[in-house]
Amino acid sequence: MRQSTNREPLVAELGKIAKAEPPSCTSEAWPSKSMHSEIVVQPAESVGRRIRTDVASVSPWSAPIIWEGTFDATLIDSIYKQQNLTIATTVFALGKYTRFIKGFLESAEHHYFVGFRVHFYLFTDQPKSVPEVKMGENRSLTVVKVQSLNRWQDISMNRMEKLEKLIENELAGEADYIFCLDVDTMFYGRWGAESLGRLVGVIHPWFFDAPRDQFTYERRPESLAYIPAGEGDYYYAGAAFGGTLEDVHTLTKTCREHLNIDAANSIEAVWQEESHLNKYFLLNKPSKLLSPEYMWRGINERAAAIKKVRFANVPKNYAEVRPNA
Ligand SMILES: CC(=O)N[C@H]1[C@@H](OP(=O)(O)OP(=O)(O)OC[C@H]2O[C@@H](n3ccc(=O)[nH]c3=O)[C@H](O)[C@@H]2O)O[C@H](CO)[C@H](O)[C@@H]1O
Ligand SMILES: [Mn+2]
Q1: Which residues are recorded as binding UDP-N-acetyl-alpha-D-galactosamine (predicted)?
Q2: Ligand 1 neighbourhood includes 210 CB (under 6 angstroms)
Q3: Total domains, the chain
Q4: Which residues lie near ion ligand 2 (Cβ < 5 Å)?
Q5: Residue 110, annotated ligand binder?
């Protein structure tokens, strides 16, 4: 977690969520087969397992928010498998971040879109240091060489332009959806077709339970990432977002343009491209939101609402791993 000092006080707030009563519906409450022979009656417990009352599972604009307990993985897989999809997945590893590649790719083999066609695009300044990872059927890796950069902020921000160009130049006709992920991460649980949508944002793990005035949006009106006090829906993670090629292309192009305009005006948003992503999602609401299960703080971190950790940060020593402090 970067600059955790800013965000740690929020942890105290976690775990305060009241434990909700289990859903009260019983099998008697549902139509019986004899009355409605055309209706497939779900066993009450299987319906109940897809109800969460301790967290919001829909946004104010009616986008689903995906939490463990809100979907049936087998059913979702059977729907999406028929569509013969390809999921492009991008990840960047420059400088010392190449050390995270192996854990990312190996854990993805076990948990990320298992059974689907997945094409990873790994951007690195050191293609020779990419380890050999045995990949399953229908899964492939393309390594893209990029220029080294001296500031971690530039590495992070520059991703928007690289993604924009990748979608423009390489992905048309090659993929249906794209996810763009941080590399200092590992998968620990299923991340599958339940995450697919036109425009998908992940609720940031340090802010899912925080009041809006604590969100670290860019607050200076001089930046195009500016969000005034009292505005904003959620605080989204910069470390994971996705959607269809068209929607993610527009997102990355817009963020890249805004980053460039800010740079020309000598201003860098407080959290770089994450700030611009948050502005974009304020103006262009995601069609689906993923809970912080999909970008958790770390495998050993706990919070009452997190029933399953799917994807989490790997601890790192910022001073040691980044090119600049
Ligand atoms: C959980 C979360 O939302 N994390 C965000 C946060 O992260 P982090 O503190 O997780 O930032 P970070 O250091 O992981 O940098 C983001 C990413 O840039 C790449 N990288 C960075 C430095 C480097 O020397 N080499 C390299 O390859 C790598 O893919 C890394 O995963 O802030 C960043 C910049 O504001 C991004 O918005 C991240 O997505
Ligand atoms: Mn990271």
Answers
A1: 97, 182-184
A2: no
A3: 1
A4: 182, 184
A5: no
